[in-house]
Predict the structure.
Amino acid sequence: MNAIVKPPFRREAMRIAGKLVQTDETVEVFNPYDNSVVGTVPAARPEHVRGAFAKARAFKPKLTRYERQQILQKTAELLRDRKEEFARLIVAETGLCWKDGLYEASRAYDVWSFAAQLTIRDDGEIYACDISPMGKARKIFTTRTPLLGVISAITPFNHPLNMVSHKLAPAIATNNRVVLKPTELTPLTALALADVLYEAGLPPEMLSVVTGAPSAMGDAMITDPDADLVTFTGSVRVGKHIANIAGYKRVVLELGGNDPLIVMEDADLDRAAELAVAGATKNSGQRCTAVKRILVVDAVADEFSKLVVEKARRLKSGDPVDPSTDVGTVINERSAILFENRVNEAVGLGAEVLHGAPRQGALFAPTVVDHVPYGCELVRQETFGPVIPIIRCPDDIAEVIRISNSTAYGLSSGVCTDRLDYINRFVTELEVGTVNVWEVPGYRIEMSPFGGIKDSGLGDKEGVAEAMKGFTHVRTWSMPWTA
């Protein structure tokens, strides 16, 4: 495989019920590494969004479980067979390194394959009615039905294939129709995925993809009268805006994270340092579940800090298409400048940079910062890049938990300890949706429930199995039934 081969320039169209739709105005898609234009997409207006929802609502899917399973599994297999093609596209529009692009393209198989397997499972329930003195000889049955309206799906830049897959696969598995708006920063992968779905046999009316800047048509995705549910992954600011204007419809919000990796005094420090560096730098640190804060107790902080620097120095930052690169760019120079400023502010408050390199455009190298004050912007806000910030904590688990819970976020966490009493307290007292023992905060499988609390979301869960429940109505029915 020659990873240096770049995909050709793509002048894309929207997919509205399978039809290719262009507009007079276009949005350019840039490669963050060299700022070259890798493609263009149409700049949709509200009327395009309205048309997509109207076409979706007018179509009534009647796919059997078997037919849905076949479409989903065929999609999984096509993505598996074309993973290098998708990886090239991901690298071109995100600036992620080839290793990360290939990893994401490979992950997508699981999402679609798991959805295919779950589709053929009927998760209805049965309740006997003769269980009380006032009972009757009846049974109550439940079944799940698709939404009456359409799912509005809005996705971010950091996982342009996998995040879209987590919206679309559960929707198709439950016979729903979707209008998708990928971010204008990385829309090319989503459009390529739509073509794969059509090829796999999905009725085109079940999926439309609209593109463009949210300032021009974003609110139309939220307020459309035919949208029954809005599923969004992205920033807290936009998520709260959606919650405010969505009106009487369901919203599923997977928002930001400020995830800690906690290292206690009994931890295997080499193993913990490996998790810290990998968790903070994979995907250029652009994951809501990336390690954003490393909370280490004073007793082992000096030794742990040295190990983190040692491992960070092994990482190569540079040209994303070079197969030996470990960390590519962040999404754009504006973001890299923000991270640079936050590091500088932390230094001004007493932190110390132990490893890093000067920023070059959107290329922000892995940067180890020690003695970080836990209240500074670098670790209080979500720093969406490959910064490795070490916060030294008192040798007191209560203080560690207090510091961990001190931000507005509550998505995931990782803890490095073998003590069962510590683990019990972390699982019980950390204000997060996930606690992973001896793993990075982001560890999960594509099927398992995933989501956060506080400013990280409303508690609704993603993951294929949970999303399939969230994308359906429960209908109950009963009938006479003698023992």
Summary: The chain has 15 helices and 22 strands. The chain has a mean pLDDT of 97. The CA atoms of residues 317 and 327 lie 5 Å apart.
